[in-house]
């Protein structure tokens, strides 16, 4: 059974890792948000791609949700000594990824090709696809500071400014990366990972052709990133509130209802099932919090169980 | 007394360090070879500039002659894992220098400006000038492999191929960096450091205007890089032999005789004084091998002693 997952960083990476542990990783494709990508210290940084790849390779830092485990910080401390910017902490091992990626991009290789080659080196057999090879950059409009590039908002300002709007620059002019539309069309199961609907899943849905493929299927299983009105990590709930919406699973269901068949929510939010049903999305209650590998595998199993209970795929 | 030194990497750095310890560093200017510079991993690497600055800052690796002391290697080991090039070993701390330099060059700052700013951060008060702001690249023609960029010859091939010729690409089109000609014109003493005459001092002499300034003075003190027909470090002696010349101080004197007043040679080569005198260059015999800080200061003192024995400068 071929599975395609749309994912952002941490939560997405965990669910994909869970799936990769219970199915043949070669049958698994993950389409990763690259709207957070930016150039820093002259290097091309792809935070979500790296979090997904590092997690699948078993070399991610389990505590931070970004970067490498057993990391050292010699480069950034010397950059600090030279008066360079240090608000975006780049570890030494992590830096090697950005250096090699930047170098290969400069020779004309695409982000897809580079990602494939890195995955091979790291022993990752899941097919990891950036949503597009050409850059799309997420900008966040804030009350206090106007429009900010995503990492300025997310890391430098620590998500403090109130959000008014989002913009995925150049998104209408880019093409999905090779394999993205086919992976959505040919999969037996499409999963929306528990990632931020605004700034992780949102950019992927904005890539021309992606939403259309999902709507043709109308059978995808979305996992809500909210539990008890809060996100496990990141500003999803805060964003809903600031955009004038309740930070709950009903809002997530409304966000995804044009293509999602099922919304997986946590036991804690069992009380929301009726309201979700009214949107036409089927709520499925289980344990969605992934504290450890066992939780990842459990949630992945649950997603497969939902899929088999739904019967054959409904691809047009 | 203002002193200007022409220098390459290791030997040059040691003598400049010796001088900086016995005179006011603010009166000291060093014009550094940048012919060895190259782009590696997408970064601008300036080996001689860095060796000079690291040595003056007290952060150079005393054993290798390049790189930083107490260095770590996390980045390069991960680059290796990704299949990237590792023949040019870049340490983590060292890498920060190249990253920041490359970033500032990309914003339009000049190499001189960046070097000044780095020296400030490292607490180096000697004025360190690259020979030029625009790149000049040293190429080495070899018997076995034809023309090689300097670092390919020097690091990758470990100086093994036999040398036939040298070329400093673009050198006739570049200008000396701001301050270079003035430092040669206004100094009370100009010193040629014990660096490789072919590939360390040679590129500096090829910068338009430099040789002319030196010849106007005809009073500079050169320190031979050879002791007993061998170079302390690097391929200077091998290069002389392969170019059909005896690797001795007479050859060095002939190399520099159009502008050098004195050639400082080691006690071991006392027997060469007569032949050197015939070139019109005054030989001065002392201990030139710099094993430690005391040796550096001693040689620096000897150079000052020669200067005072020569009397007032002969600037035209």
Write a brief caption for the model.
The structure is a homodimer of 316-residue chains. The first copy, chain A, has helices spanning 10-22, 47-57, 74-81, 92-106, 111-122, 150-156, 180-186, 197-206, 210-217, 236-242, 249-256, 273-277, 293-310, and strands at 3-7, 28-32, 38-40, 43-45, 127-130, 137-142, 146-149, 163-169, 189-192, 220-223, 226-227, 230-231, 260-266, 282-286.
Written account of the structure:
2 copies of one chain form a homodimer. The first copy, chain A, is globular. Chain A is built from 13 helices and 14 strands. Chain A has helices at 10-22, 47-57, 74-81, 92-106, 111-122, 150-156, 180-186, 197-206, 210-217, 236-242, 249-256, 273-277, 293-310; strands at 3-7, 28-32, 38-40, 43-45, 127-130, 137-142, 146-149, 163-169, 189-192, 220-223, 226-227, 230-231, 260-266, 282-286. Chain A binds chain B through residues 41-43, 71-72, 74-79, 81-84, 91-93, 95-97, 99-100, 102-103, 106, 117-118, 121-122, and chain B through 41-43, 71-72, 74-79, 81-84, 91-93, 95-97, 99-100, 102-103, 106, 117-118, 121-122.
Secondary-structure blueprint:
2 copies of one chain form a homodimer.
Chain A: E1 3-7, H1 10-22, E2 28-32, E3 38-40, E4 43-45, H2 47-57, H3 74-81, H4 92-106, H5 111-122, E5 127-130, E6 137-142, E7 146-149, H6 150-156, E8 163-169, H7 180-186, E9 189-192, H8 197-206, H9 210-217, E10 220-223, E11 226-227, E12 230-231, H10 236-242, H11 249-256, E13 260-266, H12 273-277, E14 282-286, H13 293-310
Helix pairs in contact in A: 1-2, 1-13, 4-5, 7-9
């Amino acid at each position: 059974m071929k599975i395609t997952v749309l994912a952002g960083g941490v939560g997405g990476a965990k669910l994909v890792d869970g799936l990769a542990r219970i199915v043949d990783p070669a049958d698994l494709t993950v389409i990763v948000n690259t709207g957070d990508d930016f150039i820093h210290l002259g290097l091309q940084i792809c935070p979500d791609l790296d979090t997904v790849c590092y997690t699948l390779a078993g070399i991610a830092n389990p505590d931070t949700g970004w970067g490498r485990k057993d990391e050292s910080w010699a480069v950034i401390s010397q950059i600090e000594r030279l008066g360079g910017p240090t608000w975006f902490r780049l570890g030494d091992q992590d830096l090697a990824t950005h250096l090699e990626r930047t170098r290969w991009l400069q020779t004309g290789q695409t982000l897809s090709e580079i990602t494939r080659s890195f995955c091979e080196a790291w022993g990752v057999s899941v097919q990891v696809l950036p949503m597009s090879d050409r850059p799309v950059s997420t900008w966040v409009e804030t009350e206090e500071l106007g429009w900010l590039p995503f990492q300025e908002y997310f890391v430098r300002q620590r998500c403090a400014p109130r959000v008014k709007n989002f913009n995925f620059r150049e998104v209408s002019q880019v093409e999905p990366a090779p394999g993205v539309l086919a992976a959505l069309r040919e999969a037996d199961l499409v999963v929306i990972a528990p990632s931020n609907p605004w700034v992780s899943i949102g950019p992927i849905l904005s890539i021309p052709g992606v939403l259309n493929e999902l709507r043709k299927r109308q059978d995808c299983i979305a996992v809500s990133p909210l539990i008890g009105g809060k996100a496990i990590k990141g500003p999803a709930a805060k964003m809903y509130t600031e955009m004038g919406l309740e930070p709950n699973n009903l809002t997530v269901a409304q966000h995804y209802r044009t293509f999602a068949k099922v919304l997986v929510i946590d036991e804690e939010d069992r009380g929301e099932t009726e309201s979700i049903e009214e949107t036409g999305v089927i709520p499925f209650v289980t344990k969605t919090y992934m504290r450890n590998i066992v939780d990842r595998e459990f949630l992945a199993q649950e997603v497969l169980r939902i899929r088999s209970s739904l019967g054959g795929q409904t691809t047009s």
